[in-house]
Every structure is written in C-alpha cells, then in structure tokens.
C-alpha cells in the first residue's frame, strides 16, 4: 500500500467552474486525476462539491489542447518557438501603438485566470501603454450588481459569507438559477429551508428547482423587477414596517426616496409585473415577519437594459428593512466565473486601479505612478463591450485577449466576429483553439489552473490559493509568465519570480488587500477583503459603517424603464442561463467526455401551451429567429416555462447553436452590460434536423 501511495500526489486546489470557490484536495498520479476530495476545512464548501467540481477535469488532458505557440503566416497558423512568439506579440502591439497611438490597444484579462494574472494585464495596459483600456468578463454579467451596490452601500461584493446564508431567516432569490449555477450554495439553502425553518422566496421567469421549493414563488413579466421590488418597499414603508432606527442612524435620503416611490402602487405593480397584488402583499408580510433577510441575485436581474437600477432596487429594499451589517443579512450578487470577482478586485477595469481605487483620484494616481515609475492616464478606458463599436470606428486597432471566448460571449456574435476581422493585430492566449483564436495573429498556449500557482477571489470576497497539481501540458505556460515576458520584451523590466511576488506588490498598493500574503493563505487558509486596520479580514461588511466618507448608506432614487422588447414580428421572449452540467460557452465541459455524454448538446425549453400551438414535441428540431440571427436546436417541452416564454442554456456544444447568435448589442447605460435577457424571438418548427 505504501508503494502505491508514494506515487499518489495530494494537492490543494480551487474549483474553476463557478464563483462559489469550492476548494479540495486533488489526488493525482502524473496527469491522471484519481479523486477530488473536499475537506472539512474547505472554507466555502466544507465537504460538498457539485458534478463539475468533482468530474469536470478531463479537459486538462484533452488532445485538443493547444501545445505550442502559433503565428499566422499567409493565412495559415504555423507552430513556432516561445521566444519567436513573444517577440512577434510584443512587436505587433508596439507597431500598432506607434502607428495609431497607445489608446488604440484593448486588453482583456481572464475572469478564469488568477488575481496575479489580472493584475499583470492591467499593469501592462497602464504602465506600458498608458491607457485604461482593460476589462474582464464581469462586464458581461455582474457589473450592474456592482454599480447598484456602489450607489447604495459602497463595496461591490457580497455583504456576507456563504456560511452566513445559513443564519438567515429568509433567503430571497431573484433572477438566479442557484441550484444549477451555484450548486453548493443551493445545497446550503435547501438544508436550512428543510431543517432550520428558513423561509425561501424565489422570483424568476422560469420555475427552476429553487422556485419549486419556495414558500412564495413570484413570476414577474420580463424586465419588471424594479417595479416589483419598489412596490414591496413602498408597501413596507406605508405599513410603517421599515426599520426606522437603522434608517435614522445609518441611511441618507429616506424622505426623498420615499416620495419617489409614489407611483409604485400595488395597482400599478400588478398591471406591470403581472403578479397578483395579494402575492406582493404576502411577500412584504414575510419580509416583515423575519429578523434577518438576505437577497441573492444573478444575471436574471443584471442582464437587462435597467440591470444596474434593478440591482439598486434590491439594495434599497435591504436598507429600508435594516438588513445589512449582521450575519444572515445583506446583498449577495452571485458571481459566475471562478475569478470574475478577483479580476475586478485586482484592477482589470477601465475606471479603477487595483483595489477599486478610482483613476480620477489624484493621490491614487500619484501612488501608482511612483510605484510603477510611469505616467498614468486618467482618462476612463474602453470596456469589453464598447470596444466592439470602437473597433468599427477605427479607434481600437489591436487587442490582447487572455482566456475569454470573446467571439461567442459578446452580444450578437456575428457583429463581434466582423469586428474582430477588422483588427490590425490580435493576440489570443488560451487553453484551446477557441472561436476567438480563429481571428488571431498569434495564439499563445496557456496552462490550466491545475498547472499553476496563484489565487482566486470567490463570490464572498474570499482570497484562496491554488497550488500546482501537475506540470504544464506540452509547451503551455502560466499566463502570468507569458504576460511578464511580453511586458519585458517591451522594456518593462519586471522581475516577478512567482505569483507571490505579484500579490505582495498588490497588497502594498491596495488598502483593501493590506497584509495579504501567501503565508497567510497557506493550504486551506483564506482571507476575505477588505482587510481591517487591525490586520483581520472581513467575514461580513457594514457592521459599523457603510463604505462612504460619512459612513452612511444612500437610498438611490429609481425610475422604471420598460424593457426593450416590444416587437410584433418576434412575439416570444427568449430567456437564457446556465445548466448544471456545463460551464459558460462550454469550451471545457463539452471536452469532458463523461459530462458531454450526459448532456451532449443544447436545447430550447418550450411551454406546453406553445408546443401545442406550434405542433412541437420534445426532440423536434426548431429554428429560433431574432432580429440579429438564428439558431437550430432541439425542443424540450416542459412546464418549467410558461406562456410565451422560451429558455435556452447559454452553454453550446457547437458554435452555431450558441445563444449569442441571437442576442443584441442593446445595453444597460449605467454599466454597459448587454441586455442579453431582453430578447424577442419567433420559433419555426423544422421538418428534419
Ligand atoms: Fe465548482 Fe461551483 Fe460546483 Fe463548487 S459549486 S464544485 S465551485 S462548480
């Protein structure tokens, strides 16, 4: 037995499949993964994981992985050495900057990569190219939630810890498919609901698994969350059930805010949301009946043309009811990618330096200019989404994209792809030859999380370390090494020997990370930002003060804007979201045979009524058509959706069935996040496949 054990390596790592941030010990022999073992000391998950964390790793040995750098020559990709590839990549950026200026280059950091890698990407953009054109995937999903929280309470992160959700008397889930998207959080809620008498309210267009279990299930018309939430809030104040003491002591703007709610009557709410008024009253009564409530939400809220305002309405309701600053209370915007929180925290954002330090703050700029020995730009950068139109109007001429499937995850794939074709120079750094890589001039093969060191931040602001489980595949290299090489080829003179050096620099420059270092993150140890003056971390936020100069929260006045959906030619509404088995665009999980066997391709869910009207049965092929494109998928008739609602997973095995073949470039003006969920379509039954 000892002989056998000697060959088995046990390494701590962190899951890369969602923002819960489950950690576990991985048992390996060489490149073979024997077992994934969650530990009792795993801070976010304890002894739980889900199917993706447990079985989703075969892709690391997929034959389809990139092995060597590729350079495009005469329209063909040719394998090349690392030194040539780095030189080619650096020269390409340099040439474009000389020809069109520094601001003609856009940088995209990966939300799946480590904090240290996101930090280096933004440093490359800012220190070497003196621009703030740096962003990450949060623009596609949770930027509106961050905007809503910045407006009202001051930090763009979950108010409490995942463990605190257990302590809540009432969990209110809005526009989040928690059982499939954040399974381990859902397991905790299911347990507390069943065993501890925790109450559960779910508001969603689709009767998902959590909705089935809820004490109250609300089904609002698409894009009407502001009306629902504001009507609940107004009813609570009308009844004098608001937390007067909390508001007097800790919240600004109550009187004006209350006045602004005058149009959100039960009558109007019933008309606009389609939810009977007695259900709105029951919801308000249940909120009033408990001491501690937390609200969880995700892209069912944020990906709307009023996504920031809808997120703000959530925070307003929490403030009115005094639900901040204690375990079991607060706002939980559930993060999608494993490190979408961290990529933003560490500065991959067009208006913030690392640690959410604004680029328009003189002292901040001076501090970073001194540390990096450079002149920084104070002009807000271009983001992930506006970058598309800026390619079309010739402002952006080159891009460096790390670990993002830009060609499929941006809105309106056809438009994005045409734009990518117009770039003069494109670097793509990834694990597979992605759709985006097809447009590249140079493709750099990156190592996966199991092959490198670093840290991630999960949805509860928890910084956790991952260790090298196995050696890098073929000639792949960790992103931080590649970014450093490109920077140095451009004369940066960086000298990070390992990711720990990068973390030391970030913690030195960012008050919220002060005192964070690798020895404090050893093994399963972790720290939740913001770090306090006394060196401790923060399990939950806002105990004594909100993150504004006067320490008080701000109620934010909102106006309802109807969703951009009325269209006679396209009478149905297509909603979309995650499925349990697959991850995002599917580049990894569809390359994991066990998972692919279970769910081989994507589908569209159709209500019984609609199926009858159109003569469609489960398994039939249908064409879904929007103004912006069409896809061909199988139909699944189900009572999870009702009426004119359709639902499609956003994960696609084949590019041509991807949801973003259909979506539009319409956006939330406050965050620039595309309104992926506001999608009028029509459906056509196909005779054959
Ligand atoms: Fe991974 Fe999320 Fe599943 Fe945990 S819940 S194992 S982090 S996919």
UniProtKB/TrEMBL annotation:
Needed cofactors: [4Fe-4S] cluster; [2Fe-2S] cluster; Mo-bis(molybdopterin guanine dinucleotide)
Domain of life: Archaea
Keywords: 2Fe-2S, 4Fe-4S, Iron, Iron-sulfur, Metal-binding, Molybdenum, Oxidoreductase, Repeat
Biological processes, Gene Ontology terms: formate metabolic process; respiratory electron transport chain
4Fe-4S Mo/W bis-MGD-type domain boundaries: 8-64
GO terms of molecular function: 2 iron, 2 sulfur cluster binding; 4 iron, 4 sulfur cluster binding; formate dehydrogenase (NAD+) activity; metal ion binding; molybdopterin cofactor binding; NADH dehydrogenase activity
GO cellular component, one term: membrane
Family per record: In the C-terminal section; belongs to the prokaryotic molybdopterin-containing oxidoreductase family.
Protein name: Oxidoreductase
């Amino acid at each position: 037995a000892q002989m056998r054990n000697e060959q088995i390596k046990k390494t701590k790592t962190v899951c890369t499949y969602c923002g819960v941030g489950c950690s576990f010990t991985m048992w390996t022999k060489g490149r073979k993964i024997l077992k994934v073992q969650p530990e009792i000391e795993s801070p976010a998950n304890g002894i739980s994981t889900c199917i993706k964390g447990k079985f989703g790793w075969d892709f690391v040995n997929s034959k389809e992985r990139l092995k060597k750098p590729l350079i495009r020559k005469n329209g063909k990709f040719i394998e090349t050495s690392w030194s040539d590839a780095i030189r080619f990549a650096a020269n390409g950026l340099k040439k474009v900057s000389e020809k069109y200026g520094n601001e003609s280059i856009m940088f995209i950091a990966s939300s799946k990569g480590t904090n240290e890698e996101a930090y280096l990407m933004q440093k490359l953009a800012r220190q070497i190219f003196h621009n703030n054109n740096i962003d990450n995937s949060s623009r596609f999903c949770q930027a509106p939630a961050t905007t809503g929280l910045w407006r009202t309470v001051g930090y763009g992160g979950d108010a409490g810890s995942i463990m605190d959700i257990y302590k809540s008397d009432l969990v209110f889930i809005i526009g989040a498919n928690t059982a499939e998207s954040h399974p381990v959080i859902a397991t905790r809620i299911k347990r507390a609901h069943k065993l501890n008498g925790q109450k559960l309210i779910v508001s969603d267009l689709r009767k998902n698994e959590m909705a089935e279990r809820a004490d109250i299930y609300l089904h609002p018309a698409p894009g009407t969350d502001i009306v629902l939430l504001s009507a609940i809030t107004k009813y609570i104040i009308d009844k004098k059930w608001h937390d007067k003491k909390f508001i007097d002591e800790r919240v600004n703007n109550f009187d004006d805010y209350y006045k602004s709610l005058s149009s959100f009557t039960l009558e109007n709410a019933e008309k606009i949301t389609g939810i009977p008024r007695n259900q709105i009253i029951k919801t308000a009564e249940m909120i009033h009946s408990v001491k501690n409530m937390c609200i969880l939400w995700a892209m069912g809220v944020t990906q709307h043309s009023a996504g920031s305002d809808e997120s703000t309405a959530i925070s307003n309701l929490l403030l009115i009811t005094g639900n901040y600053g204690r375990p079991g209370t607060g706002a939980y915007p559930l993060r999608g990618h494993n490190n979408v929180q961290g990529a933003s925290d560490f500065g991959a954002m067009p208006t913030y330096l690392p640690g959410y330090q604004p680029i328009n703050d003189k002292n901040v700029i001076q501090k970073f200019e001194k540390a990096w020995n450079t002149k920084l730009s104070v002009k807000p950068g271009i983001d992930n989404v506006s970058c598309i139109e800026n390619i079309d109007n010739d402002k952006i001429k080159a891009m460096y994209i790390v670990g993002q499937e830009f060609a499929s995850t941006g809105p309106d794939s056809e438009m994005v792809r045409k734009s990518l074709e117009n770039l003069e120079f494109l670097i793509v750094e990834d694990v597979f030859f992605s759709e985006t890589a097809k447009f590249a001039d140079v493709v750099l093969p990156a190592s996966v999380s199991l092959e490198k060191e670093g840290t991630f931040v999960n949805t509860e602001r928890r910084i956790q370390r991952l260790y090298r489980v196995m050696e890098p595949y073929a000639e792949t290299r960790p992103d931080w090494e590649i970014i450093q090489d490109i920077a140095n080829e451009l004369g940066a003179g960086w000298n990070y020997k390992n990711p720990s050096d990068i973390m030391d620099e970030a913690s030195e420059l960012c008050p919220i990370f002060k005192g964070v270092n690798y020895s404090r993150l050893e093994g399963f140890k972790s720290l939740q930002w913001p770090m306090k003056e006394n060196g401790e971390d923060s399990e939950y936020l806002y105990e004594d003060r909100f993150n504004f100069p006067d320490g008080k929260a701000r109620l934010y006045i909102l106006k309802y804007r109807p969703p951009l959906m009325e269209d006679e030619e396209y009478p149905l509404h297509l909603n979309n979201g995650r499925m349990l088995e697959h991850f995002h665009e599917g580049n990894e999980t569809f390359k994991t045979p066990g998972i692919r066997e279970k769910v081989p391709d994507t589908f569209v869910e159709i209500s019984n009524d609609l199926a009858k009207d159109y003569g469609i049965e489960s398994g039939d092929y249908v064409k879904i058509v929007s103004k912006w494109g069409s896809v061909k998928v199988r139909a699944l008739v189900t009572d999870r959706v009702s009426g004119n609602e359709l639902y499609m997973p956003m994960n696609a095995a084949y590019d041509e069935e991807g949801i973003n073949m259909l979506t539009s470039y319409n956006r939330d003006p406050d965050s620039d996040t595309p309104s992926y969920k506001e999608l009028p379509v029509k459906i056509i039954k196909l005779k054959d496949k």
